[in-house]
Fold this protein.
Amino acid sequence: MQFWQIQALNSFALGGLLFLLSSGFALIFGLMRIANLTHGALFMLGAYVAVTAMRFEAGLAVAALCAALVVGVVGGLIERLILRRISGNAQGQVLATLGISFITADFCLIVWGGDTIPIQTPAMFQAPLHFMGLTFPTYRLVVIGIAVVVAIILYLLMERTRLGAMIRAGVDDMQMARAVGIRASALFTTVFCLGAFLAGLGGAVGGPIFSAYPGLDSDMLSLALIVVILGGIGSLIGTFVASFIIGFIYTFGTALLPDLAYVILFLPMVIVIAFRPTGLFGTIRT
Amino acid sequence: MATDRVTGLGNEALTLEGVHAYYGHSHVLHGISLRLPEGKVLALLGRNGAGKTTTIMSIAGLLPARAGSIKLFGRPIEKLPPEFIARAGIRLVPQGRRIFPSLSVQENLAVAEQQREGKSPWTFSRVYELFPRLQERVRQGAGSLSGGEQQMLAIGRALMGNPRVLLMDEPSEGLAPLIVAEVGRAIEQIKSEGLSILLVEQNFKLALDLADDIIVINTGQVAFTGSAAAVRENNELVTQHLGVF
């Protein structure tokens, strides 16, 4: 009983972290049609920045905020200085973002070294929670809570504000959005910063679960790609649902059939691309 | 329109001089020149493929002109990106409507909103007054509107920018006759408020009813210009250039 319950909770927690990572990836892809392959590296950078902030005695909450802000600024710079020069050049963008992610990984290796650096779970969440005779690791619940709060804020931003309407208009028809006076350049930078901010936040919040280690970037990037393709590019609700689906598949796959973990993980993605290229909720074909 | 007594010229809302435009390597516009006087409606006619939509797209900055000049009230705009052209005061009712389907009616209008000083600026309530059908569907997703309603929304969206020049690309295309009449009345009202309009229209009668001046283009070049009154008296003037009507 305890096994299933813990695995289910781990699945939800992983799903929540995947949502923090993938929502920005999906927004950027939907609006700018850029498969931002730096997104995994931004997640990893978030974890490492949190490590450094905590060495200066910051609590995890403050460290996560620092990580999100630093990574958000880095994302904005990547968009302003590099990606905007190659807009419309899909292959160039793939290569450039892949290159930047390698550079970021090497940068992290130089600054933080090659050993796995654990990130302490905040003291107040270290004791497990007992409820109805079951035991829950408290921090997993906190992660799920953060993901749900971020999802609600993102939903309200997208559906209830003028900025959100402009982003959706750009996803629908970028050319027409510009023709009604929406400043594409400012919108792109805003969305890229937001996406990077969320990735950095995810890396820091996920720190006590994953730690910070070289290779975290590519582990997370492949999961984010699967989530976005499954959920539908540019669809926030699709990303939310797919994050938890993949969270479950990955957690139970590695626990029950460790030899087949990648088959279980990538097979749904292949099936979706082949038979439902718009994903579960999206309108844009992959 | 204020006419200069010495030169006989009025204020030009929009002027094109020798505009060339390409789709990739295909040379579509071969030196188009036209003038739209302030407060007038200029109908741009021509056969399919003559370059009407290309002209509109070039003015809006969506297909930048490679040569020639485009001026809005004397200010060159041909080098500006489309969002700056829109903000300078040119708004587009595009071919195929191209409303934002995942936005509600209200949001479609909101994202295009731009205030500009003027006598009676366009607001949500004035757009809904012009098209009461839209008011009944404020919260509805624009993608679920009928073709006619989408056209009304596309016009309303352009008006929300309080344009100084309105570009309309085939506003009657694919609409039922009753709806065409309703859209025609709306354009009539917009015109009566003094907005300068460049109108591309396949519906020859509608174009002639609304326009002050006519310009016909053929294979990317101007084939005829004249007043709508002259054309109404002598239809052959235009039919010989259009051939299809």
Observations:
- The longest strand of chain A covers residues 129-131.
- Chain A has a mean pLDDT of 92.
- The two ends of chain A are 40 Å apart (CA to CA).
